Description:
The chain is mainly alpha-helical. It is 73% helix and 0% strand. It has helices at residues 9-17, 21-43, 46-62, 73-92, 98-107, 115-124, 129-139, 145-152, 156-180. Residues 33-93 form the RNA polymerase sigma-70 region domain. Keywords: DNA-binding, Sigma factor, Transcription, Transcription regulation.
Amino acid sequence: xxxKQWNNDQxxxxxxxxxxxxxxxxxxxxxxxxxxxLAWRIMGTNQDAEDVVQSAFFKLWKNHxxxxxEAKLKTYFYTIVQRECFNALKKNKNHWNLDDLDEISEExxxxxxxxxxxxxxxxxxxxxxxxxxxxxxxxYYDNTAEEIGEQLEMNKNAVDQLLFRAKANLxxxxxxxxxxx
Length: 181
């Protein structure tokens, strides 16, 4: 969607921060939808996801000089979104109840969303924040342990242990659900 007016993402961001409404609109269109989907998977509700993405845009604008164009703007922004999600989860110690999970299910636009996927979402949202973030990045976004480590500022071994604990907790959750039936 980028126009030929800017040669690269760094020029586009600089123009947007400098007051160009065209550049700003282009960035918002480029980044918003996927960023909200990412934040929603981590945070669990549209409202929380939108709040996180809004905060991430504020940080992008405020710290625009740190973007050197070495990665795509999308990649750089998703890193900000992921960190904002983790910070929000740590700050709020956010845990969802069954009412919240029902609301989440209603908000999903994917027609192929199955009951099993809803159970998985419920199980993921019961994980501690770091485990939740790691499992979402690994399962939904195909991040490697190294990539997750960069996002969470952890080494690969620590991420491997985090993913192991997350998977073990998910397994316990489903085993307890099966025994209850």
